From TrEMBL, chains A, B:
PANTHER family in alphabetical order: NICOTINAMIDE-NUCLEOTIDE AMIDOHYDROLASE PNCC, NMN AMIDOHYDROLASE-LIKE PROTEIN YFAY
Protein name: Competence/damage-inducible protein A
Species of origin: Microvirga tunisiensis
Domain MoaB/Mog residue range list: 8-168
Pfam families in the cross-refs: FLAD1_M (PF24102), MoCF_biosynth (PF00994)
InterPro entries from the UniProt entry: CinA (IPR050101), FLAD1_M (IPR056596), MoaB/Mog-like_dom_sf (IPR036425), MoaB/Mog_dom (IPR001453)
Domain of life: Bacteria
Length: 248, 248
């Protein structure tokens, strides 16, 4: 049995829940983690409300190998992620000299006002995650990685974090085009193939455009032979159905 | 105090968690609900695993006025949303004659095989939500609305559902450009304005491109006068800081 390393993602921010900002981080992080052999198992989006953040952090960090958060680490009053994480862990928080040193690379001493020093508030016991773009750091505490919400900064932080992560067997993903076959035609056969190997998960994904439906079948698993075998069975099934079917 | 109608959104599907499909429904639904006066308070993404879906449905339907779900109502073996919802509500599920009638508008009798009839499995006591695009219906049970995952179908279903929803006072949103001012410059003054009216929430949102940072301040609230008053105070603050500041 391949090692499974799991993760959850917590997106923090009213702007996502009102639709003002369209999230770009979920898809990016999902693809990134999958690519390095970490299974993203759950995502939550919560508002800038301390008790909601604390509850979600504590629910998720206990359930998965890692929890990643994005958003709420800027200098304004609505940036309450660091304080909420400290509360979730039951640890103190204060202005961290290491974080101040990083901010000093960007700001002149007279520019480092109280608001900007909020960005140096780091829970006790946390390690910093550097921010090569705007300097204000993220941090890691326990199995929780706290990152910026701005996509370019989050992406830079993720690159910095990645080498320190435990990773499991990488997911092997094979995509098969159903090429004109309707889901309802291949569903029964596909279900039988899906039952035949527990280590392989098979999904069928329709998408719809002005030119009609397009169906893709995706085979996922960590054992190359199992994935190849399921994919071969699916191709055989589709070939057989294509020969048989009445025109739709 | 304005009436508050709240909602959660549950996105069901392995394809989102692996990054294979980039979700487009969260942003659309968030903006849509905000526009009709429903406050989206939480989003979760869970895999195609029955116990995860059941747990999330029961956690969310109890907490908010409405729960909307997307995904997992097609004909293939990985489409387990309807059965999971029935389990969450503790009710039976079977092939629903009303849903079969809808499918018959699209499929010839010999095309209505067992897999396609899965799309007519509807929990007992549910009302159907019509699907003008591909006929397979969604459904409503209690305060839970079960919709397709394909964006165009989900959007059509949401239009059908919307007139039946209780809505609260619409959120009034005013966006103010900080025009070159850094967050750290206006953060303190903004925080004071944010404290002055509980019914108004103020967010500051940086975005980053090759041309540098751009900051937008967003004022949200349900009382027009409160929003206007906070926005005026913010504009006054920004104008004052612009006059004062040293060049950055």
């Amino acid at each position: 049995m391949a090692i499974s390393v799991t993760a959850a993602l917590l997106i923090i921010g009213d702007e996502i829940l009102t639709g003002r900002t369209k999230d770009k981080n979920i898809g990016y992080i999902a693809e990134y983690l999958t690519g390095i052999g970490i299974d993203l198992r759950e995502v939550r989006v919560v508002p800038d409300v301390e008790e909601e953040i604390v509850a979600a952090v504590n629910a998720l960090r206990g359930r998965y190998t890692y929890l990643f958060t994005t958003g709420g680490i800027g200098p304004t009053h609505d940036d309450i992620t660091a304080d909420s994480i400290a509360k979730a862990f039951g640890v103190g928080i204060g202005v961290d000299p290491r974080a101040v040193a990083l901010l000093q690379e960007r700001y002149q001493p007279h520019e480092l006002n109280e608001a900007r020093l909020r960005m140096a508030r780091i829970p006790e016991g946390a390690d910093l995650i550097e921010n090569p773009i705007s300097k204000a750091p993220g941090f890691r505490i326990g199995n929780v990685f706290v990152m910026a919400g701005v996509p370019s900064i989050m992406q830079a932080m993720l690159d910095i974090i990645a080498p320190s992560l435990q990773t499991g067997a990488r997911m092997i993903i094979e995509t098969i085009e159903a090429e004109g076959l309707a889901e309802g035609i291949y569903a029964e056969g596909l279900g039988q193939i899906a039952l035949s190997d527990e280590g392989v998960s098979i999904g069928s994904y329709p998408s719809f455009s002005t030119s009609g439906f397009r169906n893709q079948i995706v085979v996922r698993g960590k054992d190359p032979e199992s994935v190849a075998s399921a994919a071969a069975a699916i191709r055989e099934l589709l070939g057989r159905l294509k020969g048989d079917r009445a025109p739709l």
